[in-house]
Amino acid sequence: MRIVIKIGTSTLTYATGNMNLRRVEELCKVIADIKNAGNEVILVSSGAIAMGVGKLGLRERPHDIAGKQACAAVGQCELMYVYDRVFSEYNHTVAQLLLTGEDLHDAARYENFSNTMNELLRLGVLPVINENDTVATGEIAVGDNDTLGAIVAVSVHADLLILLSDIEGLYTADPHKEKSAKLISRVEKITPEIEALAGEKGSERGTGGMKTKLSAAKICAAGNCETVIANGETPASLYRIVNGENVGTRFCCGG
After folding, report:
1. Which end of the chain is more exposed for a tag (fewer CB within 10 A), N or C?
2. What are the CB-based long-range contacts (under 8 Å, 24+) for 102-105?
3. Angstrom distance (rounded) from CA 69 to CA 133
4. Could you tell me the sign of the dihedral formed by the alpha carbons of 27, 32, 34, 39, in that order?
5. C-alpha to C-alpha distance for 151 and 143, rounded to whole angstroms
6. What are the C-alpha distances in Å from 91 to residues 23, 80, 180, 218?
């Protein structure tokens, strides 16, 4: 299988902004093992801004563009250093790709991106993709990594997009407000009723929520790629997801 795994900021870091090293190392070990089984894996990783906040010792995430971009520049170095170090322990080579909306919407740039991705996968490399937060503003921003993950998944003809965050999946109602809310394990088609179940923005460390994840699932469904929304707290659940077991919420192709 060709699998795109999007890892959210809340999965990678503590509330302090510092990296959750134990979880990240476990994630990398499981992903390396999934690759060892013959699968192709692409990471779309959030966390640069949050890690920059922690690295710089700031009390909170900046609200101005320049502040966010500065944090991203610092945090991206730390993020890739950890990925390179941990994946190297399992004999896997990583590559960094930083993208903006222009790279994905301009025909020539998109072709260059696709060619590079195909060559990296042919060489057995594990691409790690993030939005280029240091320069992406306004009209050239993708906006969130759920959407970026979906665009990447469709562009490389992936079989599966896995969105990992602090969200278990799609519920029949807000589980924080209604105790009777039940997790929906499978969605055959994303209808207006399904979209209405999406809440608001996710955690303070990230930029997405269920709305962006449903949007990503719609992009993938149209591109013949399944999507799974799951909690990244337990990295070993990736094995079950890849095996097609019920973890989180799975959105079918064509839905």
Report:
1. N
2. 102/140, 104/142, 104/151, 104/155
3. 6
4. positive
5. 12
6. 19, 16, 46, 35
